[in-house]
Amino acid sequence: MEDTPIALIKNLTTHYDDVEILSDINLHVNTNEILVIMGGSGSGKSTLLRHMLGLNQPTSGDVELFGQDLKSMRMQDLCNLRQKIGVSFQGGALFNSMTVGENIILPLKEHTKLDDKTMQIMMRIKLEVVNLAGFENLMPDQLSGGMIKRVALARAIIMDPALLFFDEPSAGLDPVVSAELDELILTLKGAMNMSIVVVTHEIESAMKIADRIAVLDKGKLVQIGTKEEIRNSDHPRVRMLINRIPENIQPDSDEYMERLTRENNI
Ligand code: ADP
Ligand code: MG
Fold first, then answer.
1. Looking at the CA of 45, which ligand is closest?
2. 75-92 as b/e: b if 16+ CB within 10 A
3. Largest CB tally within 10 Å, which of 32, 51, 72, 243?
């Protein structure tokens, strides 16, 4: 089904201050596909996601969602359009002073006039979808890392979005919990007809859930293709990602120091 892509990025270049963070990115998301955006830490994955949501303005280039160019949209139209989009940010971004249930209901309170009872029912349905039925009265600090991600996911899908963004679902999780999240993402695609963009640096997870994989390296899109195309790629940066074995995940100490000082502007 190759009709209008649900998201389209054309020649997108962006900077933080004077530093180019993304260079001339072109990609699209098809209806009902899972596109995985892969790349090492600092390659620009989260930044790309923020641009796809219209949260950041690019230096040049365009983003279209549901066939509409974000640049030419009025604020109100952009707000309406965002209601068709769910986002689970890196780290979960739950409000610590609210219960699990209150966190999940937040978008409904903001965007709908549903009565409280209906909202409670919708919240419980979504908790069930993410396998956390009965957990609505817990506080975020009572949850494990995997549970936080699942609550954030429940909040992201509370409005039944057509397009879901999920930033780093498996970061910081043990392999079993991370595999459970992969299963959950596949279930959402199948059962809820969503188009899903997943940002990850875990090749194993990407190979399990992706229809297509886009590989970012230092702000450049080095390759986009099916799992097979990526697996058989002879691009050196893609090969590095694929051949990464667990003990190689930590950067060497020089690179690590360099990154720390750069990120803290020392
Ligand atoms: P990833 O999600 O792939 O780890 P990011 O998109 O978070 O990468 O970051 C890409 C680059 O942009 C990194 O070098 C990072 O230090 C820098 N960066 C991210 N956010 C900001 C910001 N708000 N201001 C300045 N630089 C930033
Ligand atoms: Mg990130």
1. 1
2. eeeeeebbeebbbbbbeb
3. 51
Between the CA of 78 and the centroid of ligand 1 the distance, in Å, is 24
Domain boundaries, the chain: 7-84+161-263
Residue entry with tokens 């989009």: 85
Per the CB < 8 A criterion, the answer to whether 51 and 45 are in contact is no
CATH of domain 7-84+161-263: 3.40.50.300
Alpha helices in the chain (DSSP H): 45-52, 75-82, 100-111, 116-129, 145-156, 175-192, 203-209, 227-231, 236-242, 253-263
CA of 44 to the centre of ligand 2 (A): 7
Work out whether strand 60-65 and strand 7-16 pair parallel, antiparallel, or are unpaired: antiparallel
What is the atom index within ligand 1 of the atom nearest the CA of 216?
A: 3
Task: Give the tokens for residue 136.
Answer: 């609505």
pLDDT at 248: 43
Q: What is the pLDDT of residues 143-187, one digit of tens each?
A: 988 899 999 999 999 999 999 999 988 877 888 888 888 998 999
Residue nearest to atom 21 of ligand 1 (CA): 16
- Please give the Cα distance from 182 to 32 (Å, whole number): 16
Distance from the CA of 79 to the center of ligand 2, in angstroms? Answer: 24
Ligand 1 atom with the smallest distance to the CA of 263 is: 16
Measured by CA distance, the residue closest to atom 18 of ligand 1 is: 16
Per-residue tokens: 206 = 């990407």
Nearest residue by C-alpha to atom 15 in ligand 1: 42
Nearest-angstrom CA–CA distance, 216 and 45: 7
| pTM for the structure as a whole | 0.86
Q: What is the mean pLDDT of residues 243-254?
A: 53
CA 133 to chain centre: 24
